[in-house]
Amino acid sequence: MQRRTLLVIGLLGISFTVAPVAAQRDFSNVQIRTIPVSDGVYMLMGSGGNIGLSVGEDGPFVVDDQYAPLTEKILAAIAAVSDGSVRFVLNTHWHGDHVGGNENMGKAGAMILAHENVRKRMNPAEFRDVMESSQQAPPDALPVVTFTDGVTFYWNDEKIRAFHIPHAHTDGDAIIQYTNANAIHTGDTFFNGMYPFIDVGSGGHIDGMIHAAGAVLAISNSETKIIPGHGELATPDDLREYRDMLITVRDRIQTMLNDGMSVEEIVASKPTSDLDARWYPENWFIAGDRMVEQSARSLMR
Ligand SMILES: [Zn+2]
């Protein structure tokens, strides 16, 4: 239960992206849990998005880094299962609960990597005209290598493949496949057991979320381990159930939009009332109403 409370606090940061919320929050009680995923791959859970970690002879390769005040604890957790300093940090998207440790990691010598729209949204001084939703990051926090469709790393006896899904949770999402370990980090295209946050202001869209889940399932088998952006380590069945929920919500809302209903009317009709008990756990910040609203707004784009 404490974990869930921390998770909610962590996610609130992305609802108020204008202020450096993390700096004022108390992270002193946050513990980093290290969960073995598969050969050479771990998932780290603390506060904020789940971290993927590949370890081996070449050195730690990290996916996402939560919040700056947690960097020391995260590095200690990495050092407990791996030799060497962090060589790469790959961001799944630009939200503060996934990139907050970038500046520390960059200063410590890690190369920061992400989809090109992550750099744009973290650097509105350069891209002010095109970005509706963004927050200026310090120079050392910015990705120094960006990609558009995808990129592959041959590292730690692994083939680590990152690929982009357009307009899903944001417009800069990357999914990371650890090919040999048969594990996949979905970023925030997948919230295990919860309604997702779809950042429509950052180019997110429910159709992309459905597409992302399908793309991950297409490269999974029954043994695949799935690291979600938030929530516990998952199975392909968990992801399939989540995708089916998204499809159900999307189809219901699309029908209502086709009938000429407004977003307000659709929300008021409570089209997810039969789903809320399953997908809106206690203390979660995306209730059925918000799920409907963000989905409808994306479908109107
Ligand atoms: Zn996110």
Q: Which ligands appear in the coordinates?
A: zinc ion
Q: How far apart are the first and last residues' alpha carbons, in Å?
A: 37 Å
CATH topology assignment: Metallo-beta-lactamase, Chain A
Spatial order of the strands forming the largest sheet: 1-2-3-4-5-6-7
Report the biggest beta sheet as strand number plus sense, adding barrel if it closes.
Answer: 7 strands, mixed
Q: Beta-sheet strand percentage?
A: 15-25%
Element-level helix/strand string: HHEEEEHEHHEHHEEEEEHEHHHH
Poorly predicted ranges (pLDDT <50, ≥5 residues)?
1-22
- Tell me which oligomeric state these chains represent: single chain
Count of separate DSSP helical elements: 12
Structural class: alpha/beta
Q: Helix fraction?
A: 25-40%
CATH superfamily label: Ribonuclease Z/Hydroxyacylglutathione hydrolase-like
Work out the radius of gyration.
18 Å
CATH architecture group name? 4-Layer Sandwich
CATH class: Alpha Beta
Q: Give the tally of β-strands.
A: 12
Number of domains: 1
* Mean pLDDT level: 91
Overall geometry: globular
